[in-house]
Amino acid sequence: MNTAISARNIIQGVQAVNRFRDCLNPLRDLTMWRAVTMMEQAQRGMMPDLMWTYGADTGIESTDADLMVIIERSIAAVVDSDWSIDQIDSGTGGFDQALADEQEACLREHYEGCRNLRAAWAHLALARFRGFAHVNPQFGPSGTLVRLEPLDQWNFCRDGSHGAWYWNERAMQCDARTLGMQNMLAPCDYIVLDWKRPVNRIGIIKYVRQTVAEKDWDFFVECYGLPGVFIIMPSVVPPNKVDEYAEAAEDAAKAGSGALPAGSDVKVPGDGARSTQPFQPRLEWLQKQLVLAGTGGLLTVLAESGSGTLAGSVHEQAFRQIGRALGNRISEAFQEQFDLPRLQEKFPGRPVLAYFNIKTRQQKITAEIVKDMTSLAQFFILDPEEVSRETGYTILGVKQDTQQNTSGAYGNMLARASCRNAGGASDPTAALQDATATLYAQAVHSDCKPLAERLRAALSAPDLATLQARLRQLRADLPDMAKAMLHSPASAAVMERAMSAALLDGMVETTQAYTARRKATRR
Q1: Contacts of 173 (CB under 8 A, 6+ apart)
Q2: 307 phi and psi angles, rounded to 5 deg
Q3: What backbone phi and psi angles, to 5 degrees, belong to 507?
């Protein structure tokens, strides 16, 4: 395969000579011996048969429901991501801002011109399941990237486990030496993501054993699902009536009802076998092994995740984490195999200061994190180290005015209310009530300050006539003063903050009590 050949010509050529595999169902006669043989051959670099068994339209990825769900959700977590061209830390020795900006612009031009960037991510993500994945960079007349062509894994062979890659156009089950040096790929021909412990190794074993268990289970159901009925003749049946009696008994057994001579007995065998079928626990165990491998131990089951429930949240978080890990691996592949050659070619001898990066959309941007922490800081004392870790900013300390603000009555209330988490002896509810009463009184005093000033001015009148005149004017102005005082009262803000603090404190108490009960139940 030559990079000068268009991706369309490559795919058309492969389809023309590779149609024989479209007639092969990889799951027909798939046994454990066959599966192990294909994995051994793949270890020596002979990939086509195993990759076809994995990824064909009738392969295990499209047939095993558990594996299909893990693959689809893992890919979705990567594809539903954003990308950026980032610069290394400006504090790095030898950093040149002008050079970094030029390199960023160079990479951005390539990636913005790529028409199928997310499809390439989805294909590379399959490396986690199949062991490897390749895309072929295609460039336009101006030399910029226009497409990353996904290449089927069954069109590759390798010189051993770690050797060079070979293009196997006919998808023959052969080793690299058979293909010859003319089919060896140069690093500039592809971007590859290599995965040491692919999930499908567990998936194919699970599929074979599951198929055997399901087949035996079907046979078990055929034997014992509708139990046979045996009717014992009474000893008084005359010999010449035996055939007639047997026919009547058979009809009665098939119909489920009927009349037989006195003394007949009915037996239904197999009750013990039906009560001890081992197939469902076996299938659940096989599913668990695949899910453990496919989710990195983050989950044990996929079924019944529960929308909006704790289980559903755990599942969602697990695949977010998988998506972030996959995104990081794909980003590193692009940085090493695409960014570095492009920048070294355009900026020879200069340090690399910019790079491509996939950012999952589930990760909050710094501005959102800061906003969330600012809201929490109104009610809780945050750990500076955690703030620094989550935002990426270096926290040197707390400003003096911030310490003064949080050391007032409201700050004391929150500090005392937090003693439940610290194991203190103070009563957080009493602290909350005392501080709220103090702050509310101060807020009401502030809200009523205009009225108090007018009353103070009226009472300072030099004579009775002046006092009466000032009081009449105050009475006339009261409606407008009340509107101004009730427009945005400080007392309402205090009550809102106090109620929010009480709600959060109650949630903390409830969560801790629930966690304690769960731990006690587990013990």
Answers
A1: 41, 46, 48, 49
A2: -70, 125
A3: -65, -40
Strands of 132-139's sheet in order across: 145-151, 132-139, 191-194
Burial class (CB in 10 A: 0-12, 13-18, 19+), 347: middle
CA 40, distance to chain mean position in Å, is: 32
- What does the alpha-carbon distance between residue 105 and residue 342 come to, in Å, rounded to a whole number? 12
Q: Please give the Cα distance from 261 to 276 (Å, whole number).
A: 35
Name residue, tokens 């050529």: 13
Reported residue count of the chain is: 523
Provide the residue type at 97 as one letter. Q
Contact 425/419 with Cβ under 8 angstroms?
yes
Q: Which of 187-191, 194-198, 320-324 has the lowest mean pLDDT?
A: 320-324
CB half-sphere exposure, 351, CA atoms < 13 A = 13
Share of the chain above pLDDT 70, in %: 65
Distance CA 275, CA 89 (A): 66
Side-chain-facing half-sphere of 490: CA atoms under 13 Å: 12
Residue 80: pLDDT band with limits 50, 70, 90: confident
Instruction: State the Cα–Cα distance between residues 163 and 248, nearest whole angstrom.
Output: 76
In DSSP notation, 274-289 reads HTT--HHHHHHHHHHH
> Tell me, what DSSP letter sits at residue 104?
H
Question: Do the Cβ atoms of 239 and 93 come closer than 8 Å?
Answer: no
| Burial bucket for residue 235 (CB in 10 Å: 0-12, 13-18, 19+) | exposed
In this prediction, residues 347-376 reach a mean pLDDT of 76
Amino acid identity of 281?
Answer: P
CB-CB contact of 204 with 60 (8 Å) = yes
Query: Do 473 and 354 contact (CB within 8 A), yes or no?
Result: no
**What does the pLDDT average to over 256-261?**
62
Residue ranges of alpha helices (H) inside 166-274 are: 176-179, 200-224, 242-255, 271-274
**The predicted structure's pLDDT at residue 487:** 74
Give whole-number Cα distances, 142 to 3, 110, 474, in Å. Answer: 15, 10, 81
CA angle 147, 148, 151 (to 5 degrees): 135
b/e 259-293 (16+ beta carbons within 10 angstroms → b): eeeeebeeeeeeeeeeeeeebeebbeebbbbbbbb
Give per-residue pLDDT as tens, 142-172: 999 999 999 999 999 999 888 999 999 888 8
Output 156 or 521, whichever has higher pLDDT: 156
pLDDT attached to residue 39: 94
User: Rounded to whole angstroms, how far apart are CA atoms 270 and 275?
Assistant: 9
What DSSP state is assigned to residue 56? S
487 and 443 in contact (C-beta within 8 Å)? Answer: no
Between 470 and 381, name the one with better pLDDT.
470
| pLDDT at residue 409, as a whole number | 44
